[in-house]
Fold each of these.
Amino acid sequence: MNDYRGLLIKKRRKELDISLEALSHGICSPSYLSKIENNILVANDDIYNLLFKKLGISTMDTIKEEKIKQMLDLFFKYYMSSDSKIFKVMDELLEYKDEVSSYLFVQYQLFLLYASEMNSQINISLAEVEAYYSYMDDSQREYFNLFRLSSGNMELSDNEEWIFIRRLKAKANLYAYQKNTFAAYDLYKTCLNYAIELGNKKLIAEILCSLGWLCLDIDLNQAEKYYTSAAQYDSQYKMLAFFNLGATMIQHKDCMEKGNQYLKKGLKSCTDDFFTVKYKEVLFVYAILKENVGDAKKLIKELDDSKYIDVFSMMLNKDYQLNVGYQNRLKELKNDSSLFKFLFIKNCEYLHKYKEICVANNFI
């Protein structure tokens, strides 16, 4: 399902503090409305129109809507090409901040996320935009994941050299996302040299984190050096650095314990609710892999806010790898993160290893 109208209804209902029962009265059942809001089903147009009318949601003028769409497309085009015209487009788009209420809503939130790197007055977090992930189309998810790969949301400066480095880094991010690893690495190193000359510790730490991420799948030892250096330059990056190191290391048999230590250190110093959940998710997976069921049961009690709670609950069961529901969820989630890709591959290996038993029991 991917219908923006459910998102707008949920957002507006919560702003007005109206219950599901009150809004759905005379239109549909509360459970039906909940499914609309959570992108589980798409209703007919009459129901949407009635809900919109009750909430006072007005549709955008078609001409204005098309103008905003064109500007959003330009913004992302300029961002990826490090074109200075991006600032003019950004300023124009910000004039519509309180007006976008059509299918462009999610794209506009992505714009705000990217623009927050260039305008300190824009206050939006990665977690806020991630809440709209299920409503994103493939291209929007690409933009979101690309942003998530870099640390983002740094303090800004009017220093021209600083802005020049940020543009170079945006280009390096694009190379990295396109798997053009060598070009990305060279450009990140260039950015790092400029940042060191500039003496901006936060910028140095951010670029070191980018280099660390780039090396995770190529040279884990080098990735560790970059990430730990980033944490030394600016302790605020410890949370990101130790999470990425820990989440990757537990996927490798020879450094699982080291990964677990990084996760514990990172969680201890974590001050962000979003990352706290992420840390506990990975620590839960580590406990399952090490067959520490007691630790896993303790952790799952603190994962009520995780959107993957259904998967983790299944992993507590004996022979969970044979659970068809678990297998199907991993297929859905394998592109969400490297951790779920790892679990998907591990599950495929398990089913192959015990193929005869699985076939005999109609598991595969």
Amino acid sequence: MRPLAALDAEQRIAHIRAKRWVDYPHAARVLGRLEEIYAQPRSERMENLLLIGQSGMGKTTLIRKFERQSSVVIKGVGTFRLQPVVVMLMPHDPTGPRFFSQLLKAVGVPPIDTFEVGAPRESTVLRVLAELQTKVIVIDELNSVLAASPRQQRRFLQLLRWLSNELRVALVGVGVPETRHALLSDDQLRSRFMNLDLPEWEEGAELTRFVTRLIWSLPLRGPSPIDSPRVMQLLVGRTGGITLGICKAIERAAIAAIRSGAERVDYGALQSQEVWDGLEPPPATVRRRQRSGRG
């Protein structure tokens, strides 16, 4: 970080605001499970994964990293990019046509109305995904299916089962804890999904290592004594253990430290109200912590 720390204030602040990857054990565990899903041979009964975590825990960041790691580029006369992993956003209205439109959008196919008149969406999706050699379809915000009527939910789940069987692809559903309810009405589909939780942070060595690595990635010119138990208690207490809140608070404190000339983040810097404006833990997280006596 030394060359970056030598830049002027605004350049360093821009670096702090940019996206970065900081490894930690739960992330490695999730990526390992995703690799297992990816590596399985094609079969009539693929093993699927349901990744569950509170909003702000970094689920989307993890699946995008998995997508990048699995990308394949073939160079020859032209450059052709296969998509063995396709990440799509669940439509707010979980109908077949909307789902297929989102899926085609995720692989860069033009809107369906540009195709020949009468071309079935199902056949288009099957053809495109086969050409791209897709092995895994990741559906982010799968919990959106809960907004549909029970009948719509059943039809959509049947659609997912058909797609998996027809293409012999694995499915990865991503969403908040309520997402589990989306699979309860389809016994066959539920039995094919393995649940994987991305838990909120708790005080301890893993959080300390994560915060330390995050500080190392910031271009501050002075050492930041941030690995004390009271700092960890403050971060968990104010964020509910949500990754986004922890990262945002530290980044805001680092930006303030650059502007003030302090060049360090410590317990005092994290007590500033400006650091915490708008950062509140989800109500469900607060309730769980209160019930467990950690609130």
